[in-house]
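Example record used in the benchmark description.
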Amino acid sequence: MDETPGRDAVELRVHGISGVTAERILDHPIVVRVAGDTHAGFFRPRPGSGTAGGATDGVAVEAYRWGSLTAGAAVRTASMLLLLPFMLSNLAIWLRPPGHDRWGLLGVLCRLLGGTLTATFMLAAVGVTLDLVGWQCVPYPGCRASRPYLAWLHAVPAGPRLALLSVVPLLALRVVWAIGTRSARAFEGFGPSSVQRGLPGDRTERLTDAGFWQDEQTTGWLRQIHVVLGIGTLNVALLAGISPGGVGAPGHGALFGIAVGLLGVEVVLLALPAPPSPARARRFLRPLWAATVVVTVLCLGSAVLADATPSGSGKLPGYEGAAAGVVATQGVLLVVLTVVTYTRQRAARDDERPVLRGLGTPIMAAAAVSVGAAFTATLVYRVADILDHGDIPDPIRPNPPIVGPLDPPVAYWWAALAGLAALLIGAAVTSVTLLLSRRRRRRLAARIVERDYPDVPAQEAHRLRLVRETIVQSRITEELGPVLLAFLLIASLGLATVAFDVIGIGPTQLADRLGGDGGAAVVLAYVTDAGVWVISLLVICLLILGFRAYRSAQTRRVVAVLWDLGTFWPRTVHPFAPPCYAARAVPELAKRVTGLTARGPVVISGHSHGSVLAAATILQLPPAVLARVSLLTYGSPLRRTYARLYPAYLGPATLRDLGGRIGWRWRNLWRDTDPIGGPIFPPGSDDPPPGTDVDTRLRDPHSLTVDPADTVPPPIERHWPYHTQAAYQAAIRELIDRSG
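Model output (structure tokens):
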């Protein structure tokens, strides 16, 4: 159905982040959906109700609204906050430097690091249920006092008690698995199903590859492995817990070896790329699942048959070492990942050297590990604090002769101390960086306003200062590199402290040995407690944000801003990450554009992050369609942010290829006051062919003085709107006229 007869040329607007309405995209109060569904749809002004705001004569305006893919259901949006470490882990590989990743080593390291996050999640659940509740709390009279729901467990022997409580971590793993599976249903079924993408780092992987955005097979493969990895972590922890003092059924030692060996097999499979077909994947997964089920049943049976040996004296056996071992593994992987990434970026061409010295991948991986540690430490310490009625564990104060107060692993003390140090040092580095760069940013802003407003009346001096300060603030984005590098260093040092935990030394014990008189240990004990509370407050704030997202549509849109940026790329590292909305948006856009070009030329108009979706769509279109497609971007972070953070996928070479595919029918509008957008081909870069101009700079505001027909001076528009400018309509007209 042609909703606007006689108007074959189409301007297809794609919005940016934050999930705006179709009415705002079209700048029209009455719209109707002409394609798509409630998750993502294409809208036009209702026939007979007038044209869209900023429309060009003879050109129909259509809007693609995809914001509900990330800001739709309240439950989905709130649950996404719990998946933040997994999302950051998945994002890390896409920040890799350009060039071929020999042997796919970066992908292997990132997937192994993602596996440690699953193990961390399971160990947190084990720490709360088996260690704190089953091992330390139930035998402790002060803990189970006035808690009849826990008191009955005291009559259950230690082994059966641990077996019973093991059901809780299994249910938690099932819930996380279900969240990722259910929330992905709205994105599945778009694009080619017979073509599957490779893992990041493959020689042929490009945004132009068919099936690039389809990650169902890779995600399904990884999901199965991560689930059995989580179950294997629980099995090993359970067997270790019932081992001391002869606790365990006959053959227990052999069963422990089998469980550890199966865990090793799962790690090896995690390092391997996904099989090319579901049939080959099932050849690996069916025996793996069968072995996992058998070992799990045997582990639970061994625990049920274990003796009634007393528990509660200290931590769950083996749990301290397991927590320290996982953190130590994360530290080693992070160091290796940093070395490999730095080596890769040194081999890149000079014009492709990315921001952050090519260390975006380890920086994001460190962020994933840090957030995971914060979640884990908060969960374990807050549960311990509640169970022992606020009697905070403290290595300086000796525990009672028998049991209590509850004592979480020392590794979490180090995590709390490292988290507090990261916050303080990060804040200091940010302040110093912005202070030192302010003079340079002010000089740049002064040159811009002097060029744009050479003759300013004295009464408009304050207005001139406001514009200059706006430009100064808009340049903050480029100054955050040192802050992120400092974060990588702090996170690495924080993980290195686990070496003390491996030998059984906590922060206060180390300070006591170094200080001698005990005063330093007391001070550090209070500092560490403060660190626990600080990271706990941060996590609690995230939980409050999740609760608000459940109750408030406005808060869901705020949360969606983070998820729009973090879930753009396919899930090829951690399957529990929120699903990739581009797996639907890009193929859907490509299909709609292909249909519209059969009737006339199409200009894809992308604002902000929408310009990234538009670019990804064009790279997926066949040559026959590209002849009638043009691109208009405005407020675009393509070069300013994406080309620098994702140089292997949206770097300068990709942008040049993008322009060549559409015959350089590309216009980009930008402002100096825009904190997000910028030029695509800035001075000094590889410009498009001679005589081809892509970038058009808009002066903002267009005047400092009040127009005689107005009552206030023109506003500083910064990032929005652009479609109200005459340059916008001129660009649309030019691109339509140049299209085939």
